[in-house]
Specification:
Length: 483
């Protein structure tokens, strides 16, 4: 992370937390430069960025003034959803998205595909062809459900490869799969309803569930996936709305459901008739023959989510939800209220990629590269011995690791970012918000091999320094790397 970015994050956090009141001046340029041990031009650059983000105004004053508008928040607090949204920790997902554009050299924070794997030439070809279409077909409005040709391509080229037979009528194209999960939760969940999840699980899903006032019941997982015996006993008498699960390359642990657990889970779903919401975001990254639960052809009540974000490009924001047609109809009505439809151009790009004939080669290449990166990261972590891995996944992006006793991920995060190393703290992945404070998630997918080795060694050296009390910065003076 560059010096000015660190300042932006640090000052922005204080403003968000209310530590700096609206109307108050930021500390002077000189004081800030001294505190963070940076040049005055770095301070001014951070101030400019804070101004463009809407945290401060800096027009006529020598020092910026905090303007974060509190009025709209005050209004939101009056609505039930607004109150819940306020109670979330909104900065975690925001930080993750900010990490996506961070220039930090060793960025293990954000779970995304390596941009180097983007099939640029295919994209150029696809876009060239799209520009030869009548512009209203590419840049005009389109149906909320998703373009018919795109849903057909998803059915024939995407779902078939996952072993799922699903008609285009059962597919709703969404702006990322997270939108699908949000719409479904809006439709199905009332405040106080119970939702079952793995523990730990994807923080974005937990944010959605919490924002709807759900009671989240986390079921422990191990290196073979969810503990189905505990699932059965813990859910007795609970009447949960659904189980949210990622059976392959789970975020944040990288774990995949073992075949015998998968069978047990199917049995549980058949017996209980509790719907499963299957998030298969990392399904394509595994070369193990683990078929999605959705390939079981209507034997269990199930909604299936997937996305182009992890196999192709998250920025195009195309995902989809597959479900029985009556449910799709209700979700369409909700999506209309949200964004009318997923971007027409983005949908057509995704379709173009599915139809251009090189999907299998792309998937194969991605699997091989990520597998190698996970293997290397696992070796470096094992050699260092300060981190304990939750599991040793062979596919996907993630490793989940426990810190040495007495250390919290949150305190390490600040120190690590000063050394240009980013990771995601573990606590936001906790269903009850209490666990995994001493765990970190390392996303290695988008990091080239050399960076993985050096970055992880930096991290383990920091852990050694922290252990022997020589990690550097005091609370009053923050030492930053030179950018
Ligand atoms: C399990 C899981 N589901 C969904 C998403 C979000 O996907 P999308 O970009 O399609 O909204 C993520 C992103 O990290 C994820 O890990």
């Amino acid at each position: 992370m560059r010096q000015y970015e660190y300042l932006v994050r640090s000052i922005g956090d204080q403003i968000l937390k209310g530590d700096m009141a609206v109307g108050s001046k930021l500390p002077s340029e000189r004081a800030t430069a001294k505190k963070f041990v940076v040049s005055r031009s770095t301070v001014r650059r951070a101030w400019r960025e804070l101004e463009s983000l809407g945290y401060v105004t800096w027009s006529n004053q020598s020092t910026p003034v905090v303007i974060r508008p509190l009025e709209p928040m005050g209004r939101a607090e009056r609505s039930p959803v607004g109150r819940l949204a306020e109670a979330l920790s909104p900065t975690f997902l925001g930080d993750l998205m900010q990490a996506a554009v961070s220039s930090a050299r060793y960025n293990f924070e954000i779970g995304m595909p390596d941009p180097e794997l983007l099939p640029i030439q295919d994209f150029q070809q696809i876009l060239r062809e799209l520009f030869s279409y009548p512009s209203r077909e590419v840049f005009g409005y389109s149906p909320t459900l998703g373009l018919e040709r795109v849903r057909r391509a998803i059915s024939e080229e995407f779902l078939t490869r996952r072993g799922i037979a699903m008609s285009p009528h059962n597919i709703l194209v969404t702006a990322g799969s997270l939108q699908g999960l949000n719409l479904l939760t809006r439709l199905w969940v009332r405040p106080g309803d119970v939702i079952l999840t793995e523990s730990p699980t994807f923080a974005g899903a937990l944010h959605i569930f919490r924002s709807h006032g759900a009671k989240i019941l986390g079921i422990p997982i191990d290196e073979s996936g969810i503990n189905v015996d505990m699932l059965t006993s813990l859910t007795l008498g609970q009447n949960p709305r659904f189980l949210y699960i990622q059976p392959v390359g789970q975020n944040p642990t990288g774990v995949t459901l073992a075949p015998e657990r998968r069978l047990k889970l199917l049995h549980w779903a058949q017996q209980s008739q509790i719907p499963i919401v299957e998030d298969d975001a990392y399904g394509f990254l595994s070369d193990e023959p683990t078929p999605p639960l959705a390939s079981e052809d209507g034997k269990i009540p199930l909604v299936y989510l997937n996305t182009f974000s992890k196999i192709l490009a998250p920025g195009i924001r195309v995902g989809f939800l597959a479900a029985p047609a009556d449910l799709i109809r209700q979700l369409v009505a909700l999506k209309q209220l949200s964004d009318l439809h997923t971007g027409t151009l983005s949908q057509l790009v995704a379709e173009g990629w599915l139809r251009q004939g090189r999907v299998d080669a792309h998937i194969q290449r991605a699997r091989t590269i990520y597998k190698g990166r996970l293997k290397l990261a696992t070796r470096v972590i094992r050699q260092a011995a300060q981190l304990t891995l939750f599991a040793e996944p062979t596919h996907g992006f993630y490793l989940f690791a426990k810190l040495p006793a007495g250390l919290t991920a949150q305190s390490l995060h600040a120190k690590a970012s000063q050394r240009d190393v980013l990771f995601a703290p573990g606590q936001p992945f906790s269903p009850d918000g209490e666990l995994f404070g001493d765990w970190i998630r390392l996303a290695v997918g988008a990091q080239p091999t050399a960076q993985i080795e050096t970055g992880l060694r930096r991290l383990t050296r920091l852990l050694e320094d922290v252990a022997d009390g020589s990690s550097g910065s005091s609370n009053r003076t923050i030492k930053l790397p030179r950018s």
